[in-house]
Amino acid sequence: MEILFIHPNFPGQFRRFAAALAREPGMRVYGAGDAGWMADTVPLPNIPVIAYPTPEEVSKNTHPYARSFDGAVKRGQQIVQTLLNHKRQGLEPDVIIAHPGWGDAFYLRDIFPGATIIGLFEYYYRVRGADVGFDPEFPMNFDDIFRVRSLNATQLLALESCDIGYCPTDWQRNCFPPHYRQQLHVIHDGIDTHTAAPDANAAVMLPDGSTHRAGEEILTFVSRNLEPYRGFHIFMRALPLILEARPDCQVIIVGSDGVSYGKQPPAGQTYRQRYLNEIADRIDPSRLHFTGHLPYPDYLKVLQVSRAHVYLTYPFILSWSMLEAMSAGCLLIASATASVQEVITDGKNGLLFPFHEPTALANRAIEALSEPDRYLAIREAARQTIISSYDFETICYPAFIQLINQNNP
What we know:
Blueprint: E1 2-6, H1 15-22, E2 28-34, E3 49-52, H2 67-87, E4 95-98, H3 108-111, E5 116-120, H4 142-161, E6 164-167, H5 170-174, H6 178-181, E7 184-186, E8 203-205, E9 211-213, E10 218-225, H7 232-245, E11 250-256, H8 271-279, E12 288-292, H9 296-305, E13 308-311, H10 320-327, E14 332-335, H11 338-341, E15 351-353, H12 358-370, H13 376-389, H14 392-406
InterPro entries: Glyco_trans_1 (IPR001296), Glyco_trans_4 (IPR022623)
Keywords: Transferase
Pfam families: Glyco_trans_4_3 (PF12000), Glycos_transf_1 (PF00534)
């Protein structure tokens, strides 16, 4: 069987699935992605990659609501122009697995009519009841709402371009209109529970040269970027109360200063500096350790030394980091938002608090830091949740193989 994965930043979310399929007997696996986006990615062994030129930028004259769709059309066109050259040389995949959120799958059916096209559908934008308008600190106006609604033009054409699709979680699937859900399966990308595992001997060296070990009083926070969508502002506002009550606590904060989701701060500013300035006169800054982005092994060590790990998110796509933290045996203190509540039950495999209440977060963190032995059963339950529902080898990969086989007779 010949399988082509398409993602602008290949392998992206397909890293584990593509690598595992490439090891299967009788499978020939290819990747395709944007040459510019993939410049810094680590290639997967035994998977040839087709790089297409980065599409031209969207014109400033394009209506703001339509810019995302315009960019998706350009990308979809660029992909098929590149793949047509390879088709003439014999490329004829049986299955195409694409992340269609940037327009990648728009025209694939027209040049590969015999292929089964499977889409990874991450998110369908909703103007109410999800991330949009969730945080009163960042209010939306009608212009924002109309722009967000228009973003779904790409999702709708992508849905029509694929034979079948899958979503990482039930909550993400339920964001899509009801009449599309029947073609969307729920399959998570999977967690490597052997690697993301507890380690009582773990130690991490921080940028200031200090070393901290499992068993110490360490509070951790991880996000790809330190931004409001992942509750960074709420976490920072809880710190003065936590640090006052727990004088020996050290705080490790992993994440970069960019913005993955939501509005950018004013030019020249970062959310990290904004919220650090807000609490600067109420904390000892030497107890806060900002690491920036970390290599994966170092990031795992941060999870393994954590006594309590904080995770917040708007009602939005769930981060891998939350599931990896649970797999590593962390005590999760997480926001009681819908995507989180699909995984965490308060008091069973984690501790929940209302997203908008930093005092509630502080109180839960103080309790967790002061009585670590009290929460050992919750830590173990967190890890078992990931092993039983999100383990790559035993749960997610078999479901992915089944999806391919059922739709490629």
